[in-house]
Design goal:
2 copies of one chain form a homodimer. Chain A has 353 residues and is α+β, with helices and mostly antiparallel strands. The first copy, chain A, has helices spanning 35-40, 42-57, 89-98, 156-161, 178-183, 242-249, 278-289, 341-344; strands spanning 2-6, 14-18, 24-27, 65-66, 81-85, 113-115, 128-130, 137-138, 141-147, 163-170, 173-174, 196-197, 201-202, 211-212, 215-216, 219-224, 227-233, 259-262, 302-308, 319-325. Chain A has a 6-stranded mixed sheet with strand order 6-5-18-9-10-12. Chain A starts with a strand and ends in a 9-residue tail after the last helix. In chain A, 54% of the residues are buried.
């Protein structure tokens, strides 16, 4: 099934079931108010949601309405854990080359993973707001799972059984803040701002045969300012599967329901696939010509991230975000729709009483 | 006021107001069920809690009951953010010396901070469960604040205004896992297992004049297996105050209500104050005699952490934990109270029908 959280002015939003083709939705009223409630009590609450999903797909749900991703929050608008792996060798190699950092010796048998902030996840069509373009604003297209309870010491297989839902992720990164931050030795904090998620979270069965060995064997398309920069397959080159990533978190502690564990930026060795972040593009440019040519993102830039299945249908819906300045003064003129109302008002109005 | 979360079998527990002297408690029924609800809506829900607190302290609360810290979960049993600073110079110097790591050049003007897991906080008297003593089990006595909403880019002063509550923390660390983990460059994950918190969270006004300049000018006592190993003042040597630590998190993102931000291990330059973790003790031993003498914690060990005010009263109640093996076979005989019931039963009972 596919689940979304719709904006209703509250911090956790309103849970809705969304049809497989993403055309219609139905509030989960009477079953659960929020997605965390479902995750807390999955065996009890997911079966009636599956029933509602079947009814909705059959066109028989009485209070269905048109689904609009612009009304979505992140499926989990805030989570109790966000741990993001970096499971694609090609990405790690390229990005480390770009900042003159070593490959960790343990890379092939010990997942690389950071702990991120999960108190303020943002929706698929929310603006991404930053204080300065000097921070080196970059998108990162990736996938994540939401887990149920996974006990300390769980095997990768048991951890994989704990996967409840999958999501599409834009793991925003601030490339110019990262080197100094990582040099301090304690990992990311300011270099990883609020993360955005695709409109719907989906159960693994929605992926059919594309969900295999704990990996998603489908392509993620990344379009920067309308131009396709990447079409990367998330499956074959994921060095550690999601069960291994979750088990890595669970080695020394219990992983509780609603934990979000990410794959890291999807990346393919074949250069024809393009990239899922700008840092990789700049690393490739540096390898070819000695210096990066492509600047990071500017205020007003857009990013669109989407995964299509083999029939061409969107699995999660699209992430479609615009980069916006925190303070209007941090930039040149903001786009028209962001201007203060006074500036857009009729000049004659100034003389009105 | 002082607030606790009592075990009721649910994931978020039951919110209670606790008297200033920690002798009695009263459920917050009718005001809020959980602490997160209060934090989400502080201006609306905290005044009636303050009223109940005054009534309870006056001995007039009709349904008061004896407060027992053993029934406590962490005040926030799970949180949407846990970012832990390392604001005591002496601790950072000693621990880095002990693992042959450099002091970060930016230490004096850029807080050192890691992002931790917050999906499974543990209560003040819960066992601390680990897979192996080979992991290098260590306690860390420290303080933390719980924030309200603090917007991106907030000043340290504005961030300090966002502090709602303070807590006592045992930030368990697995010292033998940390060097290899930090060498990978992405910070802590397996090296920082589930964190424990003192019985009650308190509003800053409870500290009176000891809450000054965003720091708590009181001493934290640490007793390992009953022996006092540290009595360290949390105030004067905290290089960054809590407002600066919260503002550090808020530089590139919004900090949302219920975020927990820690001080790092409390540490004083004066050796007579002792230590708030074993790693410091081992570092001092190494400096004196070339090698550490004191081993890290063993299964069955206990740790007691408490902060007293100038009148000798406990501010947060005590953290009192026992270290326990995840698998019974990982250790020798467990302590009597952990043995299965059969082993403790009357031998004569075996012949009963």
């Amino acid at each position: 099934m596919k689940l979304a959280t719709l904006k209703d002015g509250s911090r956790d939003g309103q849970l809705a079931v969304v049809s497989r083709d993403l055309s219609t939705a139905h509030f989960a009223t009477g079953i659960a108010t929020t997605l965390q409630q479902v995750l807390d009590d999955w065996n009890f609450r997911s079966p009636p949601l599956e029933d509602l999903y079947a009814t909705l797909n059959g066109g028989k749900a009485r209070h269905a309405f048109a689904f609009d991703p612009r009304h979505c929050m992140a499926p989990l608008p805030r989570a109790f854990q966000w741990a993001d792996g970096s499971a694609y060798l090609n990405h790690v190699e390229l990005v480390r080359k770009a900042r003159n950092a070593e490959m960790p010796a343990s890379f092939y048998d010990d997942p690389l993973m950071y702990q991120g902030g999960s108190d303020d996840f943002i929706g698929p069509c929310d603006d991404a707001v930053f204080g300065s373009t000097d921070w080196g604003i970059d998108f990162e297209s990736e996938l994540a799972v939401i887990t149920g309870d996974v006990p300390m010491g769980a095997s990768p297989e048991a951890a994989l059984d704990g996967v409840r839902l999958l999501m599409l992720v834009n793991d925003w990164s601030l490339r110019h803040l990262i080197p100094a931050e990582l040099a301090k030795g304690f990992g990311f904090l300011q270099g990883k701002p609020a993360t955005a998620f695709g409109p719907v979270a989906v159960t693994p069965d929605e992926l059919g045969p594309a969900w295999k060995g704990g990996r998603v064997h489908l392509k993620v398309e990344s379009r920067w300012n309308g131009r396709r920069v990447g079409l990367c397959n998330a499956g074959p080159e994921m060095l550690f599967h999601f069960g291994q990533l979750v088990a890595h978190v669970a080695k020394t502690r219990n992983v509780r329901a609603g934990s979000v564990v990410g794959s890291g930026t999807i990346s393919n060795q074949d250069r024809a696939c393009g990239v899922s972040c700008i840092a990789e593009l700049r690393a490739i440019e540096t390898l070819h010509s000695g210096a990066p040519q492509t600047p990071f993102m500017q205020f007003g830039d857009t990013i669109r991230i989407e995964m299509l299945d083999d029939s061409g249908a969107s699995v999660f819906g699209a992430i479609e975000q615009r980069v916006r300045a925190l303070h209007a003064s941090a930039d040149a003129d903001p786009p028209a729709q962001d201007r203060p109302l006074e500036a857009a008002a009729d000049p004659d109005a100034a003389s009105a009483p």
